[in-house]
Amino acid sequence: MEMLARSAAAAASCSTAHPALQLPGARAPVPCRSRLRRPGFPSLRAAAAASAAIAAEPETKVQQNSSSDTEVFACPVCYEPLIRKGPPGINLPAIYRSGFKCSKCNKSFTSKDIFLDLTVTSGTKEYSEQKPARTELFRSPLVSFLYERGWRQNFNRSGFPGLDEEFQMAQDYFEPVAGGTLLDVSCGSGLFTRKFAKSGTYSAVIALDFSENMLRQCYEFIKQDGTLLNANLALVRADISRLPFASCSVDAIHAGAAIHCWPSPSNAVAEISRVLRPGGVFVGTTFLSTPRNNPFSVEALRPLRQIVGPANTSYNFFTEGELEDLCRSCGLVNYSSKVQRAFIMFSGQKPY
Fold it and tell me: Which coarse location class describes where this protein primarily resides (predicted)?
């Protein structure tokens, strides 16, 4: 038992190294051009199994069906773990009946709506903040309503392979971190959140978006499927550039068709890198920069983007090289991508 305890502690350490394992090949019924930099990601299955086998002190024990709030949510102001008053568990009923407070800065957070608001401005009465137009657009009730009723389906014209295939591609990337906690950031109406939660692959799935109306729409879809109401699934409002989670606390992060909407992609990917556990995996999809959606993608005009765009354009669009450079600059390794026309799925891993 003593040897097993030492193994579990080592598996949980941020500095532990693991031998690389071969990444299973992703399914691809649609033709994709794959640029895999390394054969695969090390697996976290052994570490998760060792940790689950130890009956350690309550404050360090992670339970698959009822994770403590202090092990998941953190204050977006100071990143200290939150104290929960209410029933434990990462599920909608438990979080709705709970109150959360930071012991360090004394800020309180509530879930009086159907989601837990963990933004810095949560609870403010006088102060308000306007985000860029591309961010505010998705806070509209109309856009939230239309997102799964025609808006997202139009992405197929740019090469997106369809929801089922896109989900399976992401699942293949996430296989090394199966059994862990997954964040679906910029989740929108939750079309992938629901698939991740129903897959049974993860101990908990947290749907995160800045848009209140997207989260409300997500909840409406969840209510239509009774199996998800009591699943290990939570809805959280948060800023992608200020994630309310402790460093090295999350196993997997998914961002579907999102990075081009973020006000500061570099700040967002840096935050993603911060909260991922060692060995954790980030998977994102977006539209590649083309002369049609971004004239500055043309080589001769790219220097002008520093003067004119992208702050003065609707969205941020990137080349393959820019996405890889961004991931590496934020500390992610084992970069990999799959491309079909203007669609790209890219992935990186937090180093051990």
Answer: plastid
With beta carbons less than 8 A apart as the criterion, state whether 94 and 86 touch.
yes
Residues 261/262/263/266 CA torsion (nearest 10 deg): -140
294, part of any domain: yes
* pLDDT band for position 129 (cuts 50, 70, 90): confident
Query: Is the C-alpha dihedral spanning 157, 161, 166, 169 positive or negative?
Result: negative
Phi, psi of 27 (to 5 degrees): -70, 145
Residue 141's CATH number: 3.40.50.150
- What are the backbone angles phi and psi of residue 21, rounded to the nearest 5°? -115, 160
321, part of any domain: yes
Structural domains of the chain, count: 1
Tokens (6 digits) for 313: 């354009």
Residue 107 lies in a domain: no
Q: Which domain holds residue 272?
A: 132-350
pLDDT tens per residue, range 225-284: 888 988 999 999 999 999 999 999 999 999 999 999 999 999 999 999 999 999 999 999
